[in-house]
Amino acid sequence: MSHGSENLEKLGRRDSALVEAVRSAAGSVLSLTPSREGSVTAKYGDRWVHSSYDPRKEARVWADAQLKEWKDQEIGVVFGVGLLYHVESLALLKPDGRRLAVIVPDVSVLKDALGARPLGPWLETIEWIWGKPADMARHLADLGNPLRFMTYASAASLHEAVHREVEASLRQMVAVRQGGYLRIAVVGPIYGGSLPIARYVTAALESLGHHVIWIDHSVHHTSYERFNSYRDVRHRLTMQGRFAEILSLDTVARLADDPPDLVLAVAQAPLTAGVLDHVRKKKFLTVMWFVENYRHLTYWRQLASGYDYWFVLQQGDCVEALRKAGAAHVHYLPMAANPQAFYPCSLTETERREYGADVSFVGAGYQNRRALLPRWLSPEWTFKLWGNEWEGAADLASVLQRRGSRIDTETCRKVFNATTINLNLHSYNGPSLDPQADFVNPRTFELAACGAFQLTDDRSLLPELFTDQEVVRFRSPDEVPHLIRRWLHDHEARRAVVEAARRRVLAHHTYRHRMEELLAVIGLRQPDRIGAILRGDRNAGALAARAETPPELETLLDRFPRDQRVELKDMADEIRTKGAGRRLAREELLILLLDSYRSETRDLV
Question: Which long-range contacts (CB under 8 A, 24 or more apart) does 409-413 make?
Answer without folding.
Answer: 409/196, 409/341, 409/342, 411/355, 411/386, 412/342, 412/362, 412/386, 412/446, 413/341, 413/342, 413/343, 413/345, 413/450
